[in-house]
Amino acid sequence: MQEHFNKVKEFVLDLGFTITKTIEEDQIILISDEASGINNCAIGCADPILIMEQHLMDLNTESIEIYKSLLIKNRDIIHGAFVLDETGKKVIFRDTLQIQNLDKNELEGSLNSLSLLLSEYSEELIKFSKNN
Q1: Which of 21, 23, 54, 100 could form a disulfide with 30 if both were Cys (CB 3.0 to 4.6 A apart)?
Q2: How many helices (H) and strands (E) does the chain have?
Q3: Residue 33's domain spans which residues?
C-alpha cells in the first residue's frame, strides 16, 4: 500500500502539482495548481482504487435546474463526474482509478479533465453558487 502512495506522490510532483498536505496514516495527499484552477484536490489511495475529489461548491437550494445542468454536463466530462456528498449539499468532482497498474498518463488524464472542466464550466459553477 505504501508503495502505491509513494508512486502517486511521485507522479503528482512529476506533473508539476504542489502537494499542500500529506496525511500518511490515511494515504491521502492534497494537491494544488493555481494555473489549472485545482485547489486542495484530495487524492486518496484506498487499495484497490485511487480516489480523487475536488470540492467545487456548496448548494443551499434544491433547484432542479442546477441538478439537471450538472447531470447534463457529466456527459461531456472525459474522466470523472460531478457528485454530491452524503448531505447532498456539496458538489464535488470525483474520479476513481485502479491503483494496481496506475501509470502517470492515467493520473494526468484525470487531472487534465478536472482542469478542463474548471476552465470551461467555471462561469456556470460561479452562477450556481451565487443563485442558491
Answers
A1: 21
A2: 3, 6
A3: 2-130
Q: Is 109 helix (H, G, I), strand (E, B) or coil?
A: helix
Total of domains in the chain: 1
The CATH number of the domain holding residue 22 is 3.30.1460.10
- Closest by CA position to 12, among listed 34, 40, 43: 43
pLDDT band at 132 (very low <50, low <70, confident <90, very high): low
- pTM of the entire predicted model: 0.92
Per-residue model confidence (pLDDT) at position 58: 92
Q: Are 26 and 16 in contact (CB under 8 A)?
A: no
Burial label for 68, CB within 10 Å (0-12, 13-18, 19+), is: exposed
